[in-house]
Write a structure and sequence with these properties.
This protein is an alpha/beta fold and 236 residues long. The protein has helices spanning 18-40, 44-56, 63-73, 78-93, 105-114, 127-135, 160-170, 184-192, 219-226, 232-235, and strands spanning 6-9, 118-122, 148-150, 177-181, 196-200, 214-216. The longest helix is centred in the first third of the chain and has 23 residues, at 18-40. The chain is globular. The structure holds the ligand CSCCC(=O)C(=O)COP(=O)(O)O and magnesium ion. Residues 10-13, 21, 25, 76, 81, 84, 123-125, 129-130, 133, 157 line the site of ligand L4RZE5RM. Keywords: Amino-acid biosynthesis, Hydrolase, Magnesium, Metal-binding, Methionine biosynthesis.
């Protein structure tokens, strides 16, 4: 097993609970959508999302209807993910939303960063949304621990080509990167691209364990399996 020089992590189900995403973030965006489009629909970034939503919509479906349908389907469609990030921004800034992280995550991320392990995110949530959840997390502002942020504009998380593109972007051999996720199909795609993989099996999220990949119940468990440093208190 090659030494791990970088960690690429998923968010929902890995660093953060599925319940937070499905019961806080998604409803927040769903309830604010119409008002947000009415207030900001003319702004270039929002208008570009609406144009792309119209292009991807079903025949006869307008952009708002397509966005509502994708929300109901939890479809990882780029214009929806971009708009959700823009809507959540106000909630994070005025304190209505605080990014959930499992308590084991921040101490390990800090220990790994201190040891020179590169930290990167790959989530279906937009890059802006990734920076918000880590920048306004329950454990403080962790966004600066990460250098790489990748979303659906790099490709789908179940496609091996996406992980190849990420390794090239990071200028790292795939086998030196450890990908963390709760979803077996994402881990399969990363392994096909040559990444090391570990499934986070979070009891509270009801993760379905997959024996094609090594498994850990939390980030210290990941550290133990892959020779990464533990936070000082846990290491003592
Ligand atoms: C950036 S937090 C919101 C996550 C999100 O929108 C989502 O669709 C979950 O995607 P993930 O790839 O983190 O499982
Ligand atoms: Mg996930």
């Amino acid at each position: 097993m090659a030494p791990v020089s970088a960690v690429l992590t998923d968010i929902e189900g890995t660093t953060s609970s599925i319940a937070f995403v499905k019961e806080t973030l998604f409803p927040f965006a769903r309830e604010a959508l119409e008002g947000f489009l009415a207030d900001h629909g003319q702004e270039p970034e929002v208008a570009a999302c609406l144009t792309e939503a119209r292009r991807l919509a079903k025949p006869g479906e307008d952009a708002a209807a397509a966005l509502r349908r994708w929300m109901a389907e939890d479809a990882k469609v780029t214009p929806l993910k971009t708009l959700q990030g823009l809507i959540w921004r106000q909630g994070y800034l005025d304190g209505r939303i605080e990014g959930h992280l499992w308590p084991d995550v921040a101490p390990c991320l800090r220990a790994w960063a201190r040891a020179g392990i590169g930290l990167h995110v790959y989530s279906s949530g937009s890059v802006a949304a990734q920076k918000l959840i880590f920048g306004h997390s329950a454990a403080g502002d962790l966004a600066s621990l990460f250098t790489g942020f990748f979303d659906t504009t790099t490709g789908g998380k179940r496609e091996a080509a996406s992980y190849g593109a990420i390794a090239r972007n990071l200028h790292l051999p795939p086998e030196s990167i450890l990908f963390l996720s709760d979803v077996a199909e994402e881990l399969d795609a990363a392994a096909t691209a040559g990444f090391q993989t570990c499934q986070l099996v979070r009891e509270a999220d009801g993760t379905q364990p997959c024996d094609r990949h090594r498994q850990a119940v939390d980030f210290p468990g990941v550290a133990g399996l892959f020779g990464l440093p533990l936070p000082r208190a846990a290491a003592a």
